[in-house]
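User: quick one, sequence for these tokens?
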């Protein structure tokens, strides 16, 4: 196999020091912990609202801590045949390989997926930025390496909106222009990685008529528009990093996103992420499989399950049915694409910790002091016990249906991993999301597992 392996593979990594956080004694009868309605509201806000992850040194070559189970960092094939994917990567110097990674807020931030993208493209070539979505126009956080903006007014809906006033596309976003003539600015930002493109495929529903295309300085760009039922491809006469697209539309137009292609071999790593998303969220769209079909995926990665674990009660049978529905939806429209399920790692959830304490009453003059018992409550955190059974449900579904699984729960450290990640500053303050460094580590480990799958024959 003709791979250009990154020198990162041969580096030796030092382990980060691990300390154990102090815990409340379990036998203290004065302390009780429970999940309340306010805790659930707090958790819901954390998972669905824009995720702000502080900027850090974007070094993807970071030490791998000792609590990471590197011996488990491989794909569990469950009998799935990955030979076609290996062949696709072998031929990536002639035709692009396309990976579509679908998930929740862990994917929407595009830090872990961005790390995996960068490493794979370093080895096999950069076919283009791939899929971008109007997340910021929809009022949520957007990856920092692309632009999807407009000066016009739009009616915007996102996946986790309680109700949809218009059709939501496979990206989990939907924007409808408020006027018949509008414009969009799409492209990549000036970063260390030069990411020019020669075509932009805009995914939409309804009629879209491209009027003109200009560069970021307002200069006309020669182009050819190729309409299709679900998208319009804009083919440029020269390379660009940012374009302004003016278009006319009827009242039925909704836009879902765009894919930027360099018309060159290599790897596409498309990321579709929505804060708060679950398997049922994407099933609600109904046509995710059809939507991603124009991306011609060789591999579809599904990273969901964290948000399902935040209910007070879970139903693993219902959860398994939701997995099956989305897998079948994707497989029906993309029969040649491999599917890879990933398990969520251990995380925490908000809980109310109450403690009964004696408080001295104010005594009257000459009287003996008296005391009363009051209950004090404060928000705390505890391991989310629902993660483990949902992880097992994903493992069982993959095994029973011949679908490969990446057990991120085990790779990240298994039971007790959340404490290790917190102590190593890899978890964000909410103890659900990761820090920038934590996401870089996750993306790097997924890359290593994929490379292992491409180099070797199945081990299970």
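Assistant:
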């Amino acid at each position: 196999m003709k791979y250009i392996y990154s020198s990162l593979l041969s580096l030796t990594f030092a382990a980060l020091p691990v300390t154990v956080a102090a815990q409340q004694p379990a036998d203290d009868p004065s302390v009780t912990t429970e999940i309340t309605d306010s805790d659930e509201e707090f958790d819901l806000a954390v998972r669905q609202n824009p995720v702000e992850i502080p900027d850090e040194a974007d070094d993807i070559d970071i030490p791998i801590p000792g609590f990471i189970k590197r011996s488990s960092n491989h794909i569990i094939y469950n009998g799935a045949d990955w030979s076609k994917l290996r062949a696709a990567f072998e031929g990536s110097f002639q035709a692009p390989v396309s990976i579509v990674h679908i998930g929740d807020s862990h994917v929407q931030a595009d830090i872990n997926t961005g790390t995996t993208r960068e490493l794979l493209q370093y080895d096999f070539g950069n076919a283009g930025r791939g899929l971008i979505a109007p997340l910021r126009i929809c009022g949520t956080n957007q990856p920092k390496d692309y632009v999807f903006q407009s000066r016009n007014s739009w009616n915007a809906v996102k996946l986790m909106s309680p109700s949809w006033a218009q059709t939501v596309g496979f990206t989990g976003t939907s924007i409808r222009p408020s006027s018949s003539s509008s414009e969009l600015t799409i492209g990549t930002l000036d970063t260390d990685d030069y990411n020019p493109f020669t075509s932009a495929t805009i995914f939409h529903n309804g009629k879209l008529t491209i009027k003109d295309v200009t560069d970021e300085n307002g200069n006309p760009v020669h182009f050819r528009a190729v309409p299709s039922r679900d998208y319009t491809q804009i083919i440029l006469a020269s390379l660009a990093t940012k374009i302004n697209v003016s278009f006319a539309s009827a009242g039925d137009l909704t836009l879902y996103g765009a894919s930027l292609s360099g018309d060159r071999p290599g790897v596409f790593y498309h990321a579709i992420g929505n804060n708060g998303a679950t398997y049922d969220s994407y099933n609600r769209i109904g046509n995710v499989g059809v939507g991603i079909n124009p991306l011609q995926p060789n591999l579809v990665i599904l990273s969901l399950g964290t948000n399902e674990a935040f209910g007070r009660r879970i139903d693993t049978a219902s959860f398994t049915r939701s997995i099956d529905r989305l897998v079948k939806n994707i497989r029906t429209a993309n029969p040649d694409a491999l599917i890879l399920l990933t398990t969520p790692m251990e995380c925490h959830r908000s809980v109310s910790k109450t403690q009964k304490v004696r408080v001295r009453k104010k005594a009257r003059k000459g009287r003996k002091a008296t005391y009363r018992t009051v209950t004090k409550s404060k928000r705390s955190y505890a391991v989310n016990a629902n993660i483990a059974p949902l992880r097992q449900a994903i493992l069982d579904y993959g095994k029973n249906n011949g679908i490969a699984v990446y057990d991120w729960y085990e790779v990240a450290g298994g039971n007790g991993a959340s404490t290790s990640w917190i102590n190593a500053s890899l978890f964000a303050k909410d103890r659900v999301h990761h820090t920038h460094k934590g996401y870089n580590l996750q993306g790097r480990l997924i890359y290593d597992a994929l490379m292992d799958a491409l180099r070797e024959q199945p081990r299970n």
